[in-house]
Protein backbone atom coordinates (compact mmCIF):
# COMPACT_ATOMS: atom_id res chain seq x y z
CA UNK A 1 0.00 0.00 0.00
CA UNK A 2 1.33 3.44 -0.93
CA UNK A 3 0.36 6.05 1.65
CA UNK A 4 0.71 9.83 1.68
CA UNK A 5 1.31 11.01 5.25
CA UNK A 6 0.69 14.72 5.90
CA UNK A 7 2.03 15.51 9.37
CA UNK A 8 4.02 18.56 10.47
CA UNK A 9 5.08 17.14 13.84
CA UNK A 10 8.62 15.80 13.36
CA UNK A 11 8.49 13.14 16.07
CA UNK A 12 5.07 11.77 15.12
CA UNK A 13 5.87 11.90 11.41
CA UNK A 14 9.14 10.01 11.80
CA UNK A 15 7.48 7.39 14.01
CA UNK A 16 4.59 6.83 11.59
CA UNK A 17 6.88 6.68 8.57
CA UNK A 18 9.27 4.21 10.20
CA UNK A 19 6.49 2.02 11.61
CA UNK A 20 4.39 1.80 8.46
CA UNK A 21 7.49 1.26 6.31
CA UNK A 22 8.50 -1.64 8.54
CA UNK A 23 5.03 -3.13 7.93
CA UNK A 24 5.75 -3.19 4.19
CA UNK A 25 4.09 0.01 3.00
CA UNK A 26 5.50 2.80 0.86
CA UNK A 27 5.27 6.07 2.79
CA UNK A 28 5.56 9.55 1.31
CA UNK A 29 5.79 12.00 4.22
CA UNK A 30 5.20 15.72 3.71
CA UNK A 31 4.78 18.43 6.33
CA UNK A 32 2.75 21.14 4.57
CA UNK A 33 -0.60 21.37 2.81
CA UNK A 34 1.03 22.75 -0.34
CA UNK A 35 3.41 19.79 -0.53
CA UNK A 36 0.49 17.41 -0.02
CA UNK A 37 -1.47 18.96 -2.88
CA UNK A 38 1.57 18.73 -5.16
CA UNK A 39 2.09 15.07 -4.25
CA UNK A 40 -1.58 14.24 -4.87
CA UNK A 41 -1.43 15.88 -8.30
CA UNK A 42 1.79 14.06 -9.21
CA UNK A 43 1.20 10.46 -8.10
CA UNK A 44 -1.47 7.97 -7.11
CA UNK A 45 -1.86 6.85 -3.51
CA UNK A 46 -3.84 4.04 -1.92
CA UNK A 47 -4.63 6.19 1.13
CA UNK A 48 -4.05 9.63 2.64
CA UNK A 49 -3.32 10.17 6.35
CA UNK A 50 -4.05 13.84 6.99
CA UNK A 51 -3.33 15.91 10.08
CA UNK A 52 -5.84 18.73 10.35
CA UNK A 53 -3.53 21.42 11.74
CA UNK A 54 -0.74 22.24 9.28
CA UNK A 55 1.57 25.27 9.20
CA UNK A 56 0.43 26.75 5.87
CA UNK A 57 -3.22 25.69 5.46
CA UNK A 58 -5.83 23.68 7.28
CA UNK A 59 -6.01 19.98 6.54
CA UNK A 60 -9.75 20.49 6.04
CA UNK A 61 -8.95 22.73 3.05
CA UNK A 62 -6.77 19.99 1.57
CA UNK A 63 -9.63 17.53 2.05
CA UNK A 64 -12.16 19.90 0.48
CA UNK A 65 -9.96 20.49 -2.57
CA UNK A 66 -9.37 16.75 -2.94
CA UNK A 67 -13.07 15.98 -3.00
CA UNK A 68 -13.85 18.98 -5.23
CA UNK A 69 -11.56 17.36 -7.81
CA UNK A 70 -13.59 14.13 -7.51
CA UNK A 71 -10.56 12.21 -6.25
CA UNK A 72 -11.74 9.16 -4.32
CA UNK A 73 -8.51 8.46 -2.42
CA UNK A 74 -9.45 7.10 1.04
CA UNK A 75 -8.67 9.72 3.71
CA UNK A 76 -8.01 9.13 7.39
CA UNK A 77 -7.79 12.35 9.41
CA UNK A 78 -5.70 12.77 12.55
CA UNK A 79 -6.84 15.09 15.32
CA UNK A 80 -6.20 15.81 18.97
CA UNK A 81 -8.53 14.30 21.53
CA UNK A 82 -10.55 17.49 22.06
CA UNK A 83 -11.14 18.40 18.40
CA UNK A 84 -14.58 16.82 18.07
CA UNK A 85 -15.95 19.61 15.85
CA UNK A 86 -13.04 19.25 13.42
CA UNK A 87 -13.53 15.48 13.21
CA UNK A 88 -17.25 15.86 12.51
CA UNK A 89 -16.58 18.53 9.88
CA UNK A 90 -13.92 16.35 8.26
CA UNK A 91 -16.24 13.35 8.02
CA UNK A 92 -18.98 15.50 6.54
CA UNK A 93 -16.52 16.90 3.98
CA UNK A 94 -15.62 13.44 2.73
CA UNK A 95 -13.06 11.91 5.10
CA UNK A 96 -13.49 8.15 5.44
CA UNK A 97 -12.25 7.70 9.00
CA UNK A 98 -10.46 9.49 11.82
CA UNK A 99 -8.02 8.63 14.56
CA UNK A 100 -7.43 10.77 17.66
CA UNK A 101 -3.89 11.50 18.82
CA UNK A 102 -1.98 9.88 20.37
CA UNK A 103 -2.64 6.73 18.36
CA UNK A 104 -1.28 3.20 18.13
CA UNK A 105 0.54 2.34 14.89
CA UNK A 106 -1.07 -1.09 14.67
CA UNK A 107 -4.51 0.51 14.86
CA UNK A 108 -3.54 3.09 12.23
CA UNK A 109 -2.41 0.35 9.86
CA UNK A 110 -5.53 -1.74 10.53
CA UNK A 111 -7.78 1.23 9.79
CA UNK A 112 -5.88 1.99 6.57
CA UNK A 113 -6.17 -1.64 5.48
CA UNK A 114 -9.92 -1.50 6.13
CA UNK A 115 -10.26 1.73 4.13
CA UNK A 116 -8.41 0.35 1.12
CA UNK A 117 -10.39 -2.90 1.25
CA UNK A 118 -13.64 -0.94 1.14
CA UNK A 119 -12.32 1.22 -1.70
CA UNK A 120 -11.28 -1.76 -3.83
CA UNK A 121 -14.03 -3.07 -6.11
CA UNK A 122 -13.79 -5.99 -6.12
CA UNK A 123 -11.40 -6.72 -3.25
CA UNK A 124 -8.63 -8.99 -4.56
CA UNK A 125 -6.74 -10.81 -1.82
CA UNK A 126 -4.74 -13.26 -3.97
CA UNK A 127 -2.78 -12.05 -7.00
CA UNK A 128 -1.95 -14.57 -9.73
CA UNK A 129 0.53 -14.66 -12.58
CA UNK A 130 0.98 -18.16 -13.95
CA UNK A 131 2.43 -20.40 -11.24
CA UNK A 132 3.21 -17.40 -9.02
CA UNK A 133 0.70 -16.39 -6.35
CA UNK A 134 0.76 -13.64 -3.74
CA UNK A 135 -1.69 -13.77 -0.85
CA UNK A 136 -2.05 -10.08 0.03
CA UNK A 137 -3.91 -10.70 3.28
CA UNK A 138 -1.28 -13.14 4.59
CA UNK A 139 1.67 -11.54 2.75
CA UNK A 140 2.66 -14.98 1.52
CA UNK A 141 4.13 -15.77 -1.91
CA UNK A 142 4.00 -19.20 -3.54
CA UNK A 143 5.58 -20.63 -6.69
CA UNK A 144 4.05 -23.95 -7.76
CA UNK A 145 2.82 -24.56 -4.19
CA UNK A 146 6.26 -23.73 -2.73
CA UNK A 147 6.00 -21.10 0.01
CA UNK A 148 8.42 -18.18 -0.30
CA UNK A 149 9.51 -16.10 2.69
CA UNK A 150 9.67 -12.36 1.98
CA UNK A 151 10.90 -9.32 3.87
CA UNK A 152 8.58 -6.31 4.13
CA UNK A 153 10.21 -4.47 1.21
CA UNK A 154 10.50 -7.61 -0.92
CA UNK A 155 6.77 -8.15 -0.39
CA UNK A 156 5.95 -4.54 -1.29
CA UNK A 157 8.01 -4.69 -4.48
CA UNK A 158 6.58 -8.05 -5.56
CA UNK A 159 3.03 -6.86 -4.91
CA UNK A 160 3.68 -3.80 -7.08
CA UNK A 161 4.93 -5.93 -9.97
CA UNK A 162 2.05 -8.40 -9.67
CA UNK A 163 -0.53 -5.61 -9.71
CA UNK A 164 1.01 -4.28 -12.92
CA UNK A 165 2.06 -7.32 -14.95
CA UNK A 166 3.93 -6.38 -18.16
CA UNK A 167 4.35 -2.77 -17.06
CA UNK A 168 7.88 -1.39 -17.26
CA UNK A 169 9.03 0.55 -14.19
CA UNK A 170 12.07 2.78 -14.08
CA UNK A 171 14.63 2.65 -11.30
CA UNK A 172 13.30 5.87 -9.75
CA UNK A 173 9.71 4.58 -9.77
CA UNK A 174 10.78 1.42 -7.96
CA UNK A 175 12.75 3.47 -5.44
CA UNK A 176 9.48 5.24 -4.58
CA UNK A 177 7.79 1.86 -4.08
CA UNK A 178 10.57 0.76 -1.74
CA UNK A 179 11.14 3.93 0.25
CA UNK A 180 8.61 6.64 -0.66
CA UNK A 181 9.66 10.14 -1.66
CA UNK A 182 10.99 11.10 1.73
CA UNK A 183 13.04 8.00 2.46
CA UNK A 184 16.83 7.75 2.31
CA UNK A 185 17.52 5.59 -0.75
CA UNK A 186 20.72 3.60 -1.06
CA UNK A 187 22.32 3.92 -4.48
CA UNK A 188 21.88 0.25 -5.42
CA UNK A 189 18.69 -0.48 -3.46
CA UNK A 190 16.56 -1.43 -6.48
CA UNK A 191 19.20 -3.78 -7.86
CA UNK A 192 19.61 -5.44 -4.45
CA UNK A 193 15.89 -6.14 -4.00
CA UNK A 194 15.46 -7.28 -7.62
CA UNK A 195 18.34 -9.71 -7.08
CA UNK A 196 16.77 -11.02 -3.88
CA UNK A 197 13.38 -11.59 -5.53
CA UNK A 198 14.97 -13.34 -8.50
CA UNK A 199 16.96 -15.58 -6.19
CA UNK A 200 13.84 -16.55 -4.22
CA UNK A 201 11.31 -16.78 -7.06
CA UNK A 202 13.41 -17.54 -10.13
CA UNK A 203 15.09 -15.20 -12.62
CA UNK A 204 12.26 -15.50 -15.15
CA UNK A 205 9.77 -13.60 -13.00
CA UNK A 206 11.43 -10.17 -13.29
CA UNK A 207 12.98 -9.07 -16.56
CA UNK A 208 15.46 -6.27 -17.18
CA UNK A 209 14.33 -3.95 -19.98
CA UNK A 210 17.62 -2.38 -21.02
CA UNK A 211 17.64 1.39 -20.86
CA UNK A 212 14.17 1.51 -19.29
CA UNK A 213 13.92 -0.52 -16.10
CA UNK A 214 12.25 -3.75 -15.00
CA UNK A 215 9.00 -5.61 -15.57
CA UNK A 216 7.20 -8.80 -14.60
CA UNK A 217 6.22 -10.60 -17.82
CA UNK A 218 2.82 -12.23 -18.18
CA UNK A 219 2.99 -15.97 -17.50
CA UNK A 220 0.54 -18.53 -18.84
CA UNK A 221 -1.56 -20.37 -16.23
TrEMBL record:
Q: Tell me yes or no: is DNA-binding among this UniProt entry's keywords.
A: yes
Q: Work out whether the entry's keyword set contains Cytoplasm.
A: yes
Superkingdom of the organism of origin:
Bacteria
Q: Which residues form a coiled coil?
A: none
Question: Which GO biological process categories is it annotated with?
Answer: regulation of DNA-templated transcription
The leader peptide range reads none
Where 4-aspartylphosphate occurs, the residues are 51
Where is the DNA-binding region?
124-218
Keywords for this protein: Cytoplasm, DNA-binding, Phosphoprotein, Transcription, Transcription regulation, Two-component regulatory system
- Localized where? Cytoplasm
| GO CC aspect terms | cytosol; protein-DNA complex
Which molecular function terms from Gene Ontology are attached?
phosphorelay response regulator activity; transcription cis-regulatory region binding
**Mind telling me which InterPro entries this protein's record contains?**
CheY-like_superfamily, OmpR/PhoB-type_DNA-bd, Sig_transdc_resp-reg_receiver, WalR-like, WH-like_DNA-bd_sf
Q: Where is the OmpR/PhoB-type domain?
A: 124-218
- Give all residue intervals belonging to the Response regulatory domain: 2-116
PANTHER family reported for this sequence: REGULATOR OF RPOS, TRANSCRIPTIONAL REGULATORY PROTEIN QSEB
Q: What is this protein called?
A: Putative DNA-binding response regulator
Give the originating organism: Magnetofaba australis IT-1
Amino acid sequence: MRILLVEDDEIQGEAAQAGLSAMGHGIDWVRKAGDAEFALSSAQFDALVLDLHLPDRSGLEVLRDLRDQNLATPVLILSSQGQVDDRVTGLRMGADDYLPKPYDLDELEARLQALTRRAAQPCVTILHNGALQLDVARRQAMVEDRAIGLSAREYGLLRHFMRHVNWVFSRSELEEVLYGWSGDVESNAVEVFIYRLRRKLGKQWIETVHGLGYRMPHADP
